């Protein structure tokens, strides 16, 4: 399944976020600068991409048509996703933040009842509430259990206070990210491509990032050169490349909850990439036997997702389910 492959590549580039955010915090950088600089750096690159494709005017037109949904769901999908993650990185280790973030694979699946879809029935096309895909949900839980096993190796040295501060904001972000993404797919309705959608969401949230950077400047002063460089790397790797790949993958399967759950489950592999990165860059200890079992469960779960979604694709009868969604 091509969408799962795109999701895996996105997870690899997303992993840079957790590694470098923790590195910046250990070096004394402010989480507010880490958040705002990423999106401020993203904007010109995304603008050049859509400008080269002659797609800027259409974005402005779409935002003017529905300004409130654009601002509201972009705020949920970007601001309420990334600000809590960088805040958590200031108080918790990278492995804890990355591991907790994997709740996104379950949260995304549980969001299905919030959406309606068009289905061909004997009475014609009708709107029905989407159901939680039970099989995909169970596989995602197995992957999440594997992630938990990987975290046990490091859990002993973390206090309860650190764990709560490092976990609760990320749990909030894990719901905000898929919710904002799915709602924005509805708002766009297939009229914009992925680059346009990411640029538009970044553009409408820039006022918040400017305010946050002003607060950071007042409280801690200007960011260091190292933090600027690392934030730039995060912006390109995670903000532009990873976000675009992930949004392309989810946009392709937006009308099928099982496939969407499978694509969102690819983000569990971030833990593997973060672990490898922290071992190489931050001298993190090698995983023990329990962690290896957890890694195996993640890999098995991803293979199961890929197999069942591919099998479902070949068996799905034509004209049974339309790829058009409507929000509640």
Automatic annotation (TrEMBL):
Pfam families: EmrE. InterPro entries: EmrE (IPR032713). The chain crosses the membrane at residues 37-56, 68-89, 95-116, 132-152, 158-177, 198-222, 228-248, 260-283, 289-308. Keywords: Membrane, Transmembrane, Transmembrane helix. This is Multidrug resistance efflux transporter family protein.
